[in-house]
Amino acid sequence: MTSGFRFSVLGPVRAWRDGAEINLGSPQQRAVLAAMLLRTGAAGCGYVLPMRGDDLDASRFWQLAERAGQARADGDLGTAASRLDEALALWKGEPLAGTT
Q: Pick from 7, 12, 74, 81: most CB atoms within 10 A?
């Protein structure tokens, strides 16, 4: 089951629902969302955002970096380089921009 949401923190904090960008409001609201996104799975008894691993660009970055490391360990340097290129392409500027 997909959430229909995507989030970005590797640059300006942004969100999309079913491909349409969502207005996230004030910098303070963006900061709260970013804090929740970066603590997904560790929100204790507070608010929780149910997400898949690839709903957040930062999570996708770490997945690709891990796959690159595995490809390098396997001796597949071409795949390792491709995964790293994909990971780096996720960065769209200063992380968490728009939260201050």
A: 7
Q: What is the pLDDT along the chain (100 residues), one digit of tens a residue?
A: 456 899 999 999 999 999 999 999 999 999 999 998 988 766 766 777 778 878 999 999 999 999 999 999 999 999 999 999 999 999 999 999 999 8
Residue with tokens 């300006």: 12
Statement: the pTM of the whole predicted model exceeds 0.90: no
Residue 7's contacts (CB-CB under 8 Å, 6 or more residues apart) are 13, 14, 15, 16, 33, 37, 51, 55, 56, 57
Rounded to whole angstroms, the Cα distance separating 62 from 39 reads 15
